[in-house]
Amino acid sequence: MSKAVEIVEVAPRDGFQPIGPWIPTETKAAFLRRLAAAGLRRIEIGSFVSPTAVPQLRDTADLLEVAARLPGLRPQVLVPTARRAREAVQAGARFLVYVLSASEAHNQSNVRRSVAESVEDYARLLDALPGDVELRINLATAFDCPFDGRMAVGPVLELVRRLVAMRPDVEICLCDTTGRATPDHVAQLCAAAAACCPQVANWAYHAHDTYGLGLATTYAAYQEGVRVFDAAAGGLGGCPFAPGATGNVATEDVVWMFERMGTDTGVSLEALLPVAQDAAALPGASAGGRARQALGPCAAAEERITSLEKSAR
């Protein structure tokens, strides 16, 4: 298997969505440009959802136009229903992320319908999807639900089988929505999913860092062959419909870990760090991660001082 990994930057959607103060569209556009300049080629730029439920994302259609002007960028947008998927396609989206939950309670909280109803809705989306539109499934609460607790592997696998049978060529992302997954649980489900559905070419993993395990679970998924990972610059994030969930694993932390392992990410950490700093400083943002502090201006100054002291000796 290839050692290289692909990082999907989700701060403009998952990171910005819980922020209360309005982030101007031009500020969001500037983040997109800077993230792309740092080498990120897949960015989840927003979501087609109710502007009443998630007002921060009401300008996603405008950001699609910005993303279309960035060479080499594959912008993706999240959609919770087939109706929202149609709106996204009409606005120019060519990479959709359909989200549903493995747990009944969270699916009701998130999209106001049962899991079975979401599966039926997904079938309607497939029937109407244009041939030039890429598709991914985000399976939320694949490991843990804020209402139902730890998810058993068996029922989650059964849901994965049903979705794969409907269209096997989609990318499937197993999501730790609450950040309560442990490395062994992630490894178990990733291995079992790959074994039961070998026809799936691309598996992805979405980590939150609520308990400081985001990097550990990301590495566990990597060991089981996953090569696509979601992360958010500045460690931003938090699900409005998952009480207690905090930010995503920080992109800068993930890049640092993989590069330190000798695994190519295609991302310039030097270019990413100032973007992550600015993301973390957004009013109302809930930031996380460690690499910014470890590699930031103070660390650089200490390194220069140490170098000068060595020269003096």
From TrEMBL:
Supply the PROSITE patterns for this chain: PYR_CT (PS50991)
- Does this entry carry the keyword Metal-binding? yes
Q: Which CDD domains match?
A: DRE_TIM_HMGL (cd07938)
Recorded hits in Gene3D superfamilies, A to Z, give: Aldolase class I (3.20.20.70)
Q: Which UniProt keywords apply?
A: Lyase, Metal-binding
- Tell me the InterPro entries matching this sequence: Aldolase_TIM, HMGL, PYR_CT
The record, for Pfam families, names: HMGL-like (PF00682)
Using the record's annotation, list all stretches that form the Pyruvate carboxyltransferase domain.
Answer: 5-273
- Protein name per the record: Hydroxymethylglutaryl-CoA lyase
Q: Name one GO molecular function term.
A: lyase activity
